[in-house]
């Protein structure tokens, strides 16, 4: 089973596109940067695409659950679920 969980910061505004004459009708995607500076493309179809485009913004921290794949030497995750997280800065 190909399942992964990643946490990172959204570094691009989500993009939204429609498909014509296809099984899936829309896709939305964005890029996140992980703690180790790896950059990963995250995408979702249909309902997930709508959620991504309406609710997520550049600069937010997220945890993504999905299926990982490598496409043209790039790491991509087909999102199944996503959670926005708040990271609070500690002051000494």
Describe the structure.
- This protein is 11% helix and 53% strand.
- The protein is built from 1 helix and 6 strands; from the N terminus they run ββββαββ.
- It has one helix at 46-55; strands spanning 4-10, 15-18, 26-33, 39-45, 61-71, 74-85.
- The radius of gyration is 14 Å and the shape is globular.
- The N and C termini lie far apart (43 Å).
- The mean pLDDT is 87.
Overall 3D geometry?
Answer: globular
Strand content: over 45%
The count of helical stretches stands at 1
Structural class: mainly beta
Q: Could you give a short account of the major beta sheet?
A: 5 strands, mixed, barrel
Radius of gyration: 14 Å
Helix and strand sequence: EEEEHEE
User: Helical proportion?
Assistant: 10-25%
